[in-house]
Amino acid sequence: MNLTLNVYHDVRRGGRNYMEDVIAIVTHIGDQSEPYSHPFVCFLVFDGHGGVEAAKFSEENLLNEIKAQEGFNSDDDELVVEAIKKGFLSTHQSMWKVIGTWPKTQHGLPSTSGTTASMVLIRKGKLYVAHVGDSTVMLAEQGDCGLTWKARVLTTDHKPDLPKERQRIEMSGGEVMLKSGVPRVVWRRERSIKLPNKKVSSKDCVPFLAVARSLGDLWSYNESTEMYSVSPEPDVSVHNIDLSQLKCLILASDGLWNVLSATETIKIVMKSLNATHQSQLKNDSFSWLNIDPAMALIDVVMAKCRDRYLRADNTSVIVVLFE
């Protein structure tokens, strides 16, 4: 299958003092002399937390780890899916080798850096979708009468309060607690208490992370169960490409999805593509200055946050249009 893809991307720091999002777009032409000879294109979004180190490490290593797995170049979808899963786990485990070089926490403890990871691999007429965390992946497909697009969300956010995730966290020896109404995975953090003539060690239970799966977050490893409360194992799915229905693919960090719904996102993309025929969206204040849908999406996110007196999060978007 020959595909023509128009790819747009944008990344904004928002109202934060630092940027922890990372994106990557990788193309492989194909070469019979290489072990992964099938042509492919891969889109990746990483939303880091606790520092950008885990996101950058994943951007540099995840796809290479996946390609190195036996079965990656197979025509058998099950083998490709298994290679993707192993690549995620291998990337995660490799972080133990470098965590000592990452900045320590303000308490002098090892880095708590981690990252969501969402990946779409397009190869041989199929989409291979893998993710940990809450950087959602969505398709826009042909709607009724060909006049509209409809949303199909391909990923389920890994949140600690989901029954499946909470059960896994508790089985790993972890715990979920609320902080300001948000369910978070608990970090049992080492603490030293100085008493006269001695020092006593204890652990603070800190409601820490609002996602249940990620790459990194090595603090969540439980030695007694030999499991991670914050799991690095991705969900992976495979989808056939039907060009009569598929219009676009959107990957984004939660800086976008916390502000816009899937339906709103599709409408903005459609309107941005018709920007030469309109100067404003009806009944709002957002002016369309270009036809880049990724920029248009983040422009709206930033404007909505300003209008609501909210601090915008780091926001990253990749929009892929199919022709």
TrEMBL record:
<feature type="domain" description="PPM-type phosphatase">
    <location>
        <begin position="4"/>
        <end position="322"/>
    </location>
</feature>
<dbReference type="InterPro" id="IPR015655">
    <property type="entry name" value="PP2C"/>
</dbReference>
<dbReference type="GO" id="GO:1902531">
    <property type="term" value="P:regulation of intracellular signal transduction"/>
</dbReference>
<dbReference type="InterPro" id="IPR001932">
    <property type="entry name" value="PPM-type_phosphatase-like_dom"/>
</dbReference>
<dbReference type="Pfam" id="PF00481">
    <property type="entry name" value="PP2C"/>
</dbReference>
<dbReference type="GO" id="GO:0004722">
    <property type="term" value="F:protein serine/threonine phosphatase activity"/>
</dbReference>
<dbReference type="GO" id="GO:0051019">
    <property type="term" value="F:mitogen-activated protein kinase binding"/>
</dbReference>
<protein>
    <recommendedName>
        <fullName>PPM-type phosphatase domain-containing protein</fullName>
    </recommendedName>
</protein>
<dbReference type="InterPro" id="IPR036457">
    <property type="entry name" value="PPM-type-like_dom_sf"/>
</dbReference>
<dbReference type="GO" id="GO:0045814">
    <property type="term" value="P:negative regulation of gene expression, epigenetic"/>
</dbReference>
